[in-house]
Amino acid sequence: MANSKGTNMLTVLEHCRVSPTRLDHNSITRKNLPLTFFDIFWLNWPSSSLVYFYDFPCSKSEFTQTIVPCLKNSLAIALQYYFPLCGNLIIPATLSKTTTIPAIICLDGDSVSLTIAEFSSSTSTISEGFKHLSGNHARHVDELFGLVPQLLPGDVTETGADKNVVISPVFAVQLTLFPDHGFTVGLTRSHVVVDGKTMSSFMRTWASVCVMQLNDNENDYNYDHINNNLPFYDRSVIKDTKGIASIFLRGRLRMAETNSKAFAPQGLEKDTVQATFKMNRAQIQGLKNLVSAQVPHVSTFVVVCAYVWTCMTKARAALGQDQKNDDFEVEEHFFIGMDTRARLDPPIPSNYFGNAILTCKCTLKSSQLLGGGEEGFVNAVEEIRKTLDGKTSSEEGVLKGFEMFFDHIDAMKGQRKFGVSGSPKFDDYGLDFGWGKPKKFDFVSKKFSLAGTRDSNGDLEIGLCFSKDEMDAFTTIFTQGLIN
Q1: What's the pLDDT tens digit per position in 249-293?
Q2: One GO molecular-function annotation for this sequence (predicted)?
């Protein structure tokens, strides 16, 4: 963990490794899970971190003697089914003379890093700290980073014929106690290994096993419901008739060779803050009503993304970041992830382990997003809707043109671009390990993320990460737009 306001108030109680429990008494020996083009797409991207806050007052002894052992044991069992999370990512570091096929390598003895920490301060500050960090208001991102483990960048290692192979861990967990107030479950994972759907399935499995252990005094647990939903590992279902994997790998390796920090965690500005905004069903319906004449039957996802996109653009303009008239004619790009499991030809199983996300690009000029009245919002809705409809209605399938994605990215240098993470479908607030639902769930340091709410009543939580000035401007525009 890097130095931050959050880590300065933490004491590490234990650092250990958790290996999969062998329920069937069989060893892994060695398993290679080759990367598909969906996986290679995420090479060089920063790792992704999540944190769950549990409002469960407990003493340090109860935490260390009851809660942590149960979470450890259930994690070990869950990793039995999701063993690649214990493995290492192996990719060539250079383009020259390599025979390495990028893969996740899993061996007996592989394990996941687990950090146990305690928020250490006076009693009043502990209470304030838990309330502050689990709130919706703007908090410095480095405070939240203290609650999630650091996934170290890969090491260049000599292995056999290849002298330049990058070997990287892919998953880590941290449990942090706020004495007499609650605890957090933080995790960091490489997006190369799993997408949000797979990670959500793993977390539900972990939580289910933990609940069974808490409620059953016997040693033999009923894992039938887990066995009926095991991850599907066969990579042959991903058809790569255009050689997209090779195209993407060459592109990603070129980026790594020209940027020494390509495999390092992403840095943040000192004043970066994170906040959560809520939108209720009435407000969402109000947005739909604004565009019903132009875009009937529009989805909640589309109108929320369009509204955030336009508010971001207006906030930047309000701060004078587009001083030159020409700046308003610069193209802005908004990326949306589409789960392709049911959309590929043929479809692949819904429990497929790995990545199956297609990144869809929406593009408008700043002036189109800043249009008077509701014009900018309508333009954004129409562009997002058109992009998504174009992917699903193409006769060539959802992968049409995907092999050209990084050529398009190269052409966007210097232009504004961002995307949305998460999905209300993952039901992050339903993740109960046996001590109740999370009080709060956060993506850490994602510019824009979406999640459901704790009450699961159709409301949404929008996580945003900006500079302090941008957050203040965005908050005003976002709030006023919903009121009006």
Answers
A1: 888 877 766 654 433 334 455 689 999 999 999 999 999 999 999
A2: acyltransferase activity, transferring groups other than amino-acyl groups
Per-residue pLDDT, 477: 95
Asked if 300 and 460 touch (Cβ cutoff 8 Å), the reply is yes
Residue 195 has a CB neighbour count (10 Å cut-off) of: 23
Extract the tokens encoding 71. 């979470």
Q: Do 133 and 54 contact (CB within 8 A), yes or no?
A: no
Q: Which residues pair with 357 in a beta bridge?
A: 339
Asked if residue 231 has a cis previous peptide bond (ω within 30° of 0), the answer is: no
pTM of the model: 0.92
Chain centroid offset of residue 313 CA = 23
DSSP string computed for 138-204: -EEHHHHHTTS---PPPEEEEETTEEEEEEEE-EEEEEEEETTTEEEEEEEE-TTT--HHHHHHHHH
Q: Is residue 459 annotated as a catalytic residue, yes or no?
A: no
Q: Tell me if residue 304 falls in helix, strand or coil.
A: helix
Average pLDDT of 445-472?
Answer: 92
| Torsion region of 160: left, alpha or beta (phi above 0 gives left; psi -120 to 50 gives alpha) | left
Q: Are 156 and 166 in contact (CB under 8 A)?
A: yes
Q: Which of 432, 459, 469, 472 is catalytic?
A: 432
Distance CA 9, CA 120 (A): 5
| C-alpha 310 chain-centroid distance | 23
Would you say the C-alpha torsion 477, 478, 480, 484 has a positive or negative sign? Answer: positive
Side chain identity, residue 71: L
Active site residue 333: no
Residue ranges of the alpha helices (H) in 32-155?
37-40, 60-62, 68-81, 123-133, 141-145
- In this structure, the number of other CB atoms found within 10 A of the CB of residue 3 comes to 10
- For residues 245 and 40, the answer to whether their CB atoms sit within 8 Å is yes
Question: 426: number of CA atoms within 13 Å, CB side?
Answer: 22
| Phi (first) and psi of residue 3, to 5 degrees | -65, 140
Distances (CA, A) of 159 to 100, 229, 481: 10, 36, 57
**Cα–Cα dist 307/291, whole Å:** 11
pLDDT tens for 122-171 read 666 888 999 999 999 999 999 999 999 998 877 777 655 556 788 999 99
- For residues 23 and 77, give the distance between their C-alpha atoms in angstroms, rounded to a whole number: 8
